[in-house]
Amino acid sequence: MNEQRPIRAKSGANHEGTSAHNRRVIIDALRVNGALSRADLARATGLTKQAVSNLVETLENEGLIASEELVRKGRGQPSTPYRLVADGAYSIGLQIDRHVSRAIVVDLVGNILARATAEVPPRAPEEGIGVLLDLLADVRRDFAMNRPEAEARIAGIGVAMPGPFGVEIADDSLWLMQAWQSFPLVDRLAAGTGLAVSLQNDAAACATAERMVGAAHGLDHAVCIYVGYGIGAGLILGGELYSGAKGNAGEIGMVLFGQPENLVPLEHRASIASLYAMLDIEPADPQQFDKLERLVLEDDRRVGEWIERAGHDLRLAVHTAETLFDPQTVILSSGVPGSLMPRLIAAIEPLRPSLVPTAGRSVPRLRLGMTDPWAVAIGAAADPIRRAFDPSFSAILKRQGE
Amino acid sequence: MNEQRPIRAKSGANHEGTSAHNRRVIIDALRVNGALSRADLARATGLTKQAVSNLVETLENEGLIASEELVRKGRGQPSTPYRLVADGAYSIGLQIDRHVSRAIVVDLVGNILARATAEVPPRAPEEGIGVLLDLLADVRRDFAMNRPEAEARIAGIGVAMPGPFGVEIADDSLWLMQAWQSFPLVDRLAAGTGLAVSLQNDAAACATAERMVGAAHGLDHAVCIYVGYGIGAGLILGGELYSGAKGNAGEIGMVLFGQPENLVPLEHRASIASLYAMLDIEPADPQQFDKLERLVLEDDRRVGEWIERAGHDLRLAVHTAETLFDPQTVILSSGVPGSLMPRLIAAIEPLRPSLVPTAGRSVPRLRLGMTDPWAVAIGAAADPIRRAFDPSFSAILKRQGE
DNA sequence: TTATTAAGTCAAATTGCTTGACTTATTCGT
DNA sequence: ACGAATAAGTCAAGCAATTTGACTTAATAA
């Protein structure tokens, strides 16, 4: 037998894995439901009272959860609700965007504790890495100032940057960061900070944020379209972030729309880059959002045109996403604050009829998510927390690696 | 506290779950790799030799796996490879299509042991259920004839029918089975046969078949486009069949293509229904495939037109699927045998550049899968086996339910 | 005042993976 | 031809973590 090709198999599981999973399930239940007693947790997770009790005790000792006031609610012994402790863990988010980089520190429940920005040269990674490490050091120092023991509770650094990854793109016009593609960013950041570093694209980060603290809170099937300098979608499928075989799932900006003989990527018509190009706004301009907001409020003709065109294409993109993913909801998020995004939503609606049900919904088909320049950074920071504390198939297995 | 709304939480796990998972991992490893020794299994799954040994012993006693000849391959004690036993389990597949229904019995490795067809009235479920139960009884009797103990080893019945489910569709032209939508099919079949019954759409079934014995064997990320009377896609995401919030994920037939002012669903241009409409072939005609094949071989002008149009739309559909799902491969399957599908593939190619890598691939971007009228029935039959024996997140948890 | 209900604990039982030593069978080197 | 090295697989004890069932505690309802 020429048994030379590697054997492919999924990982087995053991007790440690189950226990780790159960921990995560409890943390997740507390995040989704607020505060729950041990008995509540036992019922909700299907575990026995005793198993929950043991896990709750451990989590309490670790400072991840804490009990609240006794609650009397009918007959029987009063229950002791438990709640996540915000200071149970911290996480650092780093967004590397085309014209600015942002670092942020959040706690376990998503409160923002520190932030800072820096300008990173988009075409010179070797130089940029120094800037990034300084930025991270800044924000870390700022955060740790009056929290002496907090350093040990940092779950890691989540990095988000525009995708796709590992792809040669002919059209460099919107894509200024080719140079970063081949740079060992994760390794260098890990070496420079001593923390675990993970990388994802900006849309995935945004989806993570929406799931942790935003419009997708508690949902297991959601498509989060992120309108940034580019445009992409983060996918929550079956309760987990889905990133595809090569980490590029959801790159809706590269989906082609328009006349069959003249197909253009969505990114050319519905990204902020395309809007700024029409408006002659410089993407590196610190005043960009103010300038834009003024034009939006003035009902600038070019802004109206863009909204109409982008809305038209996005209406179809939402329909396509609904049809292919069958989500509970579609969320439209953006790094642009102010009134642009509400107008865009208005231009997208009414949605086309699709296979998702319209009656009896608990969440709308399309919803506005965050509209905040820091949305991606927040999502990036949410990623290490997700990895450390959210239930997932891979977390249960012996050999990890998503 | 008005704690009235239900508590949402994921299910916990316990030892039984780990064990069940490890069983499935071993079965899966044997399916993907053919035959493996206990030591191989231990290395591949990350479990200890001992854990594997115990599981292998159990599986052997249950008749699901069996040892082969000793293999000497270098120093050390020779190894005993184990392999799946085809007769370890059986499964029944039932395809309910618009003009014919097919039942099939397969074994654990996908061999077909019996099959039969029947005509089911598409608009009269109450009458149709009798026909289906007779059909199932036929095929079951046929199969069990000379396998007296086999009845106990039937994992269940997998049913596949055209989707989407639970949707009111305005356009009834291609959709003749509205009446079945509100019919409690699964319950009635379960009651009438005494077996576990599961339901999925035909494209999902086809994807399941491709994964078990076809072009997606051993892959964890694949999109399987199924060209049947309608058209849909089955999604293998992260090693599992993905069906969305309401079971309708992958309904690519309803994705809109064409001129922006005249968008039409893919189904109108790339389904067999649309081809038959051009050719005046009656979908209920038993000779349909022969008639079609003759026209294809004659280079019939209308066939050429359809192939061109469908190929054009599918090229874009493949691009969209690649962009949104980032799969390892896209598979094109069909219920139509003969030379139509190879021609269609030829018309789709060359594929548009997309974000999936083109160089260094081990599988092509687009591949022809099954072209067999029985493909969906085989996939339907594969579903109970998948549920019973494939590793999945839900199988590890206390509370099941995909 | 007492029965009922529910939360939570205690301690033993059980399941199933892990550990480390051991046996067995084969090839390689001298 | 022989011993050393290597690898497969078994044995038996150890261990982690859930489960079980009885028990305690504390509240409300009748």
From TrEMBL, chains A, B:
SUPFAM superfamilies: Actin-like ATPase domain (SSF53067), Winged helix' DNA-binding domain (SSF46785)
Gene3D superfamilies: 3.30.420.40, Winged helix-like DNA-binding domain superfamily/Winged helix DNA-binding domain
Protein name, UniProt field: Sugar kinase
Disordered: annotated span: 1-20
Residue ranges of domain HTH marR-type in the record: 26-75
Keyword hit for Protein biosynthesis: no
Signal peptide: none
Family that this chain belongs to: Belongs to the ROK (NagC/XylR) family.
InterPro entries on file: ATPase_NBD (IPR043129), HTH_MarR-typ (IPR000835), ROK (IPR000600), WH-like_DNA-bd_sf (IPR036388), WH_DNA-bd_sf (IPR036390)
Pfam families registered for this protein in UniProt: MarR_2, ROK
GO molecular function term, any single one: DNA-binding transcription factor activity
UniProt keywords, alphabetically: Kinase, Transferase
This protein's record includes keyword Ribosomal protein: no
